[in-house]
Amino acid sequence: MNGTLYCNKCGAPNAATAQFCGRCGAGLVLTAAPTPGAIPPGAPVTPAGYPAPAAYPVAPAGIRYGGFWIRVVAFIIDAILVRVVVHPVAAIFGIGGLAAGGLGLHGFRHGAGLPLLIFGGGVLAILTIGASWLYEALMLSSSYQATLGKMIFGMKVTDLSGNRLSFAHATGRHFAKWISSLTLCIGYIMVGFTERKQGLHDMIAGTLVRRN
User: Pick from 43, 62, 81: which residue ends a domain?
Assistant: First the structure.
């Protein structure tokens, strides 16, 4: 269905497919359009003279968002899962470096052990960054709309209208977290104080973390 839904709570226009208002977060419900003679004064109308589909908030108090601490726990769970997969692969490079250079100081000084150990550390960092990105972006853009950590606590990540994120959108949100980290993690702490529990990265990416 094409058209626009106007939120009855704040009056903001929203896409016809939106489930929640992009401005205030109120739930949207499409109501039947009245006849032209029953148009309320000041109501938005279509070119044909009929009022635009109206939307009304559905129990705003029932809309819940993922808070700070529960998202911290979910993040820890996800970080552990990613590292359980990545570390064994990267450890192969580290062990290979030790074997090639020897465990003694003399081996590190004249052999290839130390360079390979440094190389192994670089591989670990690259694999961790890449795996974290793909894991989060693929899970958030899937039908689950959440990583495993978030799924445990009944959370989903959506756009401001309550729709599922695309892979590109989820990727943008993931890397926006770097900005939240560069602010001495203040961007994450904002989750505990903003109205809809948005971190700085959520505001940049235009996303919400909803909790069932």
Answer: 62
CA distances (Å), origin 152, targets 90, 105, 131, 198, 209: 28, 47, 20, 20, 14
Strands 207-211 and 13-15: unpaired
- Provide the H-helix boundaries in 66-112: 68-101, 105-110
- Tell me the pTM: 0.67
Same domain, 160 and 105: yes
Confidence (pLDDT) at 49: 53
Phi, psi for 40 (deg, rounded to 5): -65, 150
Single residue among 11, 41, 62 that ends a domain in this structure: 62
Residue 166 and residue 151: Cα distance in Å, rounded?
18
- What range defines the domain where residue 147 resides? 68-211
Residue 212 has pLDDT above 60, yes or no: yes
CA–chain centroid gap for 91, Å, is 30
Q: What is the pLDDT of residue 203?
A: 96
